[in-house]
Amino acid sequence: MGTTPTTPRTSERAPERSPEPPVPAAPPPAARRTTRRAARSRFSPRTRKTVLLLHVITSMTWLGLDIGLLMLSVTGFVSDDPVTRRTAYLSMNMIGDTLLVPASLLALATGVLLGIGTPWGLVRYRWVLTKLVVTIITATLTIFALRDGLHEAAAGVLADPPSPGEAGVGLLAAPLVSLTCYIGMTALSVFKPWGRTRWGRRPAASA
């Protein structure tokens, strides 16, 4: 008795599914931090760059003037030539009266604007707060202490005999202290150490 051959049943095809949209990868932590900072910034990118440029220019001007004062003070202190000594201290007095005060105040003002208008703030991070305090102290000493020494030395070299007196020693130390502060503040801006202050951690804890 013959057998009827059976044809193999074709496998039923599963219904096609539409491909699921790819899940976007989460941005790295650094990108998330940058996005949050950009969202909290009060300045537009153009304004922030303009204020930053002004801050860099005024800060470098302040640093250059301080280096010039240091060189002039050393020249006036070690020189035995009365004309060279008088020229050095009179030049220092002119720089202190006409250039040093505006440069220090503009550097302080643009730094405060950067803190207010950017997510760094003024007291949120320890390195920013340290820079602010050091800048205020340095600018205050420049206006109220260094200029008095410059005036005293200038009056001394115009007297007979010409001598800067005790102000000459102080004018050697003041630019060195200021230069040390500027180098320290520059290092803080580059490395940004120490993390947040308690004021900077408070909004994150309440969110």
UniProtKB/TrEMBL annotation:
Residues 20-30 have a biased composition (Pro residues). Residues 10-19 have a biased composition (Basic and acidic residues). Residues 1-43 are annotated as: Disordered. Residues 33-43 have a biased composition (Basic residues). The chain crosses the membrane at residues 51-78, 98-116, 128-147, 167-191. Keywords: Membrane, Transmembrane, Transmembrane helix. This is DUF2269 domain-containing protein. It comes from Actinomadura viridis.
